[in-house]
Amino acid sequence: MTAWETLAKVMFPDVEKTPDDYEKQYPPRDLPEGARVVRIAPSPTGFLHLGVFFTAMVNRLTADVSRGVFFFRLEDTDKKREVEGGAADILEGMNTYGLSIDEGFVAPGEIHGEYGPYQQSKRAVIYHTYAKSLVEQGLAYPCFCTEDARAAARQQQEAEKARTGYYGPYAICRNLTPEQAIEKIQNGEPYVVRLRAPGDPERRIKFTDLIKGTIEMPENDEDLVLLKSDGIPTYHFAHAVDDHLMRTTLVIRGDEWISSVPKHIQLFSLLGFKAPKFAHVSPIMKEDNGGKRKLSKRHDPEAAMHFYAEQGYPKESVLEYLMTIANSDFEDWRRTHPDDDRSSFPFNLKKMSVSGALFDMNKLNDVSKNVISRMTAEEVSQKVLAWAEKYDSAFYNLLVKDKNFTTGIFNIDRENAKPRKDLAKWSDARDYTAYFFEETFEPTVELPETVSSEDAKAIINAYLAANVPTEDKQVWFEAVKALCPALGFSPDVKAYKQNPDAFKGHVGDVSTVLRLAVTGRRNTPDLCAIMNLLGSDRVKARLTAFSDSLTN
Ligand code: GLU
Question: Is 383 in the pocket of ligand 1 (CB under 6 A)?
Fold first, then answer.
């Protein structure tokens, strides 16, 4: 047994298996040519963030276009930052948006697949087996430097204007003999395990990022920590071991990791693994004071997926919008394929933004208005009810009293060739429907500038007296026009414009008075349909009250 092998045994007395055992336990996957194995590997440190969801979506799309596999691994090694229920929140969020996961954690508490455990806290023995093997080969070593010693070294490096870090002459424990290390361990000195990094920073490594293109960086010479003093792996080490054993072929992750790629490629190589391909996703950006900055988890409510549910954005809208961020030509495709399923869009990693796409709330609203305008009244009604039940009980109570009436509201100007686009999210329905309910109707005393109180009263009296039927829009409008001449208004807008002095106004003014009286608003969907839904009693009451409120 070599001295390094003896040291490895002292460091890892409990390890019984060898890397070979794991190679056999997790054989390469039997997949068709070109199929990519991708994954999302979140840490349960809070609720589901837009960035994580977006990266998961990009992974899903990549798996789909290559007929590959998308799995979920939980990176729960940082117990200090872990939030209770964090993993469930992430999974529920993904499930809610219909983002299906093939393997690993597929739903809260539900795990499938042959390449597990899919939870890093359950993989300690695997990491230790690989760390042991590196020590046996002299490729890793225990480092006994204390926090204080590290801080002092950093200060010295700063004073010398040297690069900070544990490398070259600063990597003190690198020079311990296995015997010296064993003695320290037997004295009970705590230690971390470091890689003996063979890189030369004068040399450069080159790799191709599937989103960002060819990248060149100096080789890594930093003796990075593989295992912390409690035996828990660092991200770098766990990433190499897990993505190898889970047979990931393409790592799609946030671009905060891009500067670590030289470390990762080196690790894969020293461990005897074939490195996966990489694609680093740029963060979603936000416009701020004319500049661009990363969407902030702390300061921007829209960075949390909960925000969209609370505001009542349909899932469809969020997914459609994120597609426009993922591949900017999605919008053109959507214009030419209005009714196609999103999954037939030819998604391509190479078309992703290198600098970071801008999050644009107005665009989300526009996309969502289109999505909602394509829904049936029944669908809108159901979704608004479901949203209100959860987020606005007063509104829910109004809507649920008479579901047919509620559906009737959303049916106005819908299900035709040019549906209105008033709603971007379910919370907009509160204001949109307010005048349909006595509880939330806000009467007004406003009149069009050109119409006097007297004329307004005359219009309302004439309308009430005429008992105009509201079943048919055309019939209704003809009847309103017919009231005009006696009131001194032109039934025809063109005729009025040709000779404005001959009239008090035109039929548009007449209907505006009626609209203001019945809805309290100047702009609404089709007034005849509104009156028809409200029913003649309520319409009469509102018209009368409006007329009464007008001062002479
Ligand atoms: N747990 C890492 C993170 O949340 C995963 C990065 C990766 O996908 O490899 O940033």
Answer: no
